[in-house]
Specification:
298 residues, 5-stranded mixed beta sheet, 4-stranded antiparallel beta sheet, 21 strands, disordered N terminus
Length: 298
């Protein structure tokens, strides 16, 4: 009787251990790849598959094509190697004439903040696809010092929502300054710069030159006391304070960085979702520490 009970308990323990191992990534270092999902669009022609957007609402992943008019939703993939997307649905976007560039989930409003294809308009986008214009960025006064560089997508702007002070961090494509805005407009409907109007990732000693050979912002995520910033073409992500002090950088296996989004609930470790800009693929990389970047803005 005791031997049978012992065998039964051993079997239960082994099954439980296997289940735990199959759902918890065996990673323990910042920058380790935790999950990988291939979207149905794959490497199809422009603009399908070409996408600098990823959002996460605590349950599903979302993305859109470059200046697209469809919000795609897929299941969060299991940890481990690459998996084809499951649960894919298409949600028509209504109310953004120039299409969507980047999105970031706001847990308090249960909606996405979105930059539009004109590079200056910022919308609030529901998960059912309805969008409302909230503010526009003055191309001169709203982006101090900005100059479009040759070869850049000058109407492409990445953003992330910061719930700590209800603000938005928005960075033009491949530009070293990431601008910081209130979520409300002024009397003219223009974006209002926050008390810290921007951070500059090219300002020594907080630049990226040592790691990348150049300093630009191609993606930004926030959900706590730090910003996580990616530089397109450089297989690293960077940890910055809200005032622009570089804390650390971490290797990842991604260089075509399109967009970032925080996730601290899907796996046994906290991750940052990274959308490949030129391929229908979204990967999750381990954050520097647990819950450093909380989904939905923190």
């Amino acid at each position: 009787m005791k031997r049978g009970l012992s065998r039964a308990l051993t079997l239960v323990f082994v099954v439980a251990l296997f289940a735990l191992q199959s759902t918890t990534p065996a990673h323990a270092a910042p920058g380790d790849q935790v999950a990988d999902v291939l979207t149905p669009e794959g490497a199809t022609v422009w603009p399908l598959g070409i996408s600098p957007s990823v959002g996460f609402d605590g349950r599903y992943l979302y993305y859109a094509e470059f200046a697209g008019h469809v919000l795609h939703r897929i299941d969060v993939p299991p940890p481990g190697g690459a998996h084809d997307a499951t649960g894919h649905i298409d949600i028509p976007i209504v109310g953004i004439p120039s299409g969507v560039i980047a999105i970031s989930y706001d847990a308090g409003r249960d909606a996405f903040w979105a930059t539009a294809g004109d590079g200056l308009s910022v919308y609030l986008l529901t998960k059912s696809g309805a969008a409302v214009l909230i503010l526009t960025i003055d191309p001169v006064n709203g982006r101090p010092g900005y100059q479009c560089q040759p070869g850049n997508f000058c109407t492409e702007s990445k953003l992330n929502y910061d719930r700590a002070d209800d603000t938005l961090w928005i960075g033009p494509d491949a530009w070293p300054r990431i601008y910081h805005y209130q979520t409300y407009p002024d009397a003219q409907g223009h974006a209002v710069l926050a008390s810290t109007p921007f951070i500059d990732v090219s300002a020594p000693p907080n630049d990226m030159t040592l790691e990348c050979g150049y300093s630009i912002g191609s993606a930004v995520a926030v959900g706590g006391p730090y910003l996580l910033i990616g530089a397109g073409g450089c297989a690293r992500y960077f940890q910055y304070t809200h005032t622009g002090v570089k804390v650390a950088s971490f290797k990842i296996s991604e260089t075509a960085i399109g967009d970032f989004e925080c996730d601290n609930v899907s796996y046994g470790v906290s991750v940052i979702w990274v959308k490949n800009a030129f391929w229908g693929e979204i990967r999750a990389y381990e954050q520097p520490s647990p819950n450093l970047c909380v989904y939905g803005g923190g």
